[in-house]
Design a protein that fits this description.
It is a single chain. By secondary structure, this protein is α/β, with parallel strands linked by helices. The protein has one domain: Spore Coat Polysaccharide Biosynthesis Protein SpsA, Chain A, CATH 3.90.550. 34% of the residues lie in helices and 18% in strands. The chain is built from six helices and six strands; from the N terminus they run αββαβαββααβα. The strands form two sheets. The protein has a four-stranded mixed sheet, sandwiched between helices. A hairpin with a 2-residue loop joins β4 and β5. α2 packs across α4. The radius of gyration is 16 Å and the shape is globular. It starts with 15 loop residues before the first helix and ends with a helix.
């Protein structure tokens, strides 16, 4: 992409990592973890996190960070929020929380696609995650489907009014899109 998405400007002008931290705090998260690579220079200066969760493997994508956070989390549920969702509000997590129960989390779905990086997972999902990693399967879509089949996750339909919340800033034009988003607010 050419730049670190976490440092792109959020609509409020701060970096995206701070916006996402604040969204989780606004949603009522009691413990906010930062999943990042330790070689990212900004990580050392990032404030307001209970801990840094370092991806244990250099390959595998987001499932590695999600699994590490499930292992580290002190609470029964883990809210996950990707760095590249600048429009997702804290209200999304409030809606997901309504679908959660003891040992059961919630994830949004539109069409055939889950939104696994804006979800609430029960810590019990870590066993399915480790099983997937042991098989070399790094698909969060498959992990979520397995979690639903096992009764660990409930799916919540993403309505037309919520769809814009899931527009991500991922690709070479992300910096231009972030500037455009800031101009809209």
């Amino acid at each position: 992409m050419g730049c670190d998405k976490a440092l792109l400007p959020a609509p409020d002008g701060g970096p995206m990592w701070a916006r996402q931290r604040d969204v989780l705090a606004g949603a009522g998260a009691e413990e906010i973890l930062l999943s990042a690579r330790p070689e990212q220079p900004w990580v050392a200066q990032a404030k307001g996190f209970a801990a840094l969760v370092v991806d244990g493997f250099s390959v595998g994508g987001p499932i590695i960070g999600v699994t590490a956070a499930l292992e580290r989390a002190a609470h029964p549920h883990l809210a996950v929020l990707a760095i590249d969702l600048p429009k997702l509000p804290a209200a999304w997590f409030a809606a997901l929380r309504e679908d959660c129960a003891r040992g059961v989390g919630a994830v949004g779905r539109h069409g055939d696609f889950f939104e696994p990086l804006a979800a609430i997972y029960p810590r019990e999902l870590k066993w399915l995650a480790w099983e997937a990693l042991a098989k070399g399967d790094y698909s969060l879509q498959k992990l979520v489907a397995a979690g639903i089949a096992a009764g660990l996750l409930r799916e919540r339909k993403i309505g037309p009014a919520e769809t814009p919340w899931f527009e991500n800033r991922n690709g070479p034009d992300a910096a231009a899109a972030a500037a455009e988003l800031k101009a809209e607010s």
